[in-house]
């Protein structure tokens, strides 16, 4: 898979390194000469150019890319790169970094963004995820399809503890994608029984999040009542 990354700062280089380790072809693009540090990611291709200019993207052969990642520290640049990648070059998958959470609402399909990753929001979500049981935590937003990746740790008092996945009436537009149980990562099937303490990851429409949280956090009736 060929991936172009706009922004060769610490974030861009880190992403490039991970992708190269997984066998992908990576091009790093940055307009700042000081950012071109070939020795830091020697296996990547490098291009000194402004990723907001069509001539630069032509030189980068963006039409051959399967994924474009807009990873600069400037939200305006990331939006322009995303829009050009999608509309001018038809890149199938565009991922954009959101630096200022106040700008997150802009990072959607109108600007060519398939997945928006807000580093401040993600860090906040990971803190919440670490300390929250029974509360829905939004980890990531997918612009296409208007869906979020959300997490909830099943509390001991949940009525669904012990219930098989296939027997749960999940809300519409909701999909359970992973169960993390201890140090195991499970691909859920209909026969798997949910356990208290399970970390459940869903892709869900925003309108269904409250319904999903209510379903998973509902308490059993007191037997003594």
UniProtKB/TrEMBL annotation:
Key words, A-Z = Ion channel, Ion transport, Transport
Which Pfam family, just one, is annotated for this protein?
TrkA_C
Stretch forming the signal peptide: none
Per the record, the domain of life is: Bacteria
RCK C-terminal domain sequence ranges: 137-218
Query: RCK N-terminal domain location, by residue?
Result: 1-117
State the PROSITE patterns in the record: RCK_C (PS51202), RCK_N (PS51201)
Which GO terms fall under biological process for this protein? Answer: monoatomic ion transmembrane transport
Stated name of the protein: Potassium channel family protein
Q: Which organism is it from?
A: Streptomyces gamaensis
Q: What is the lineage of its organism?
A: Bacteria, Bacillati, Actinomycetota, Actinomycetes, Kitasatosporales
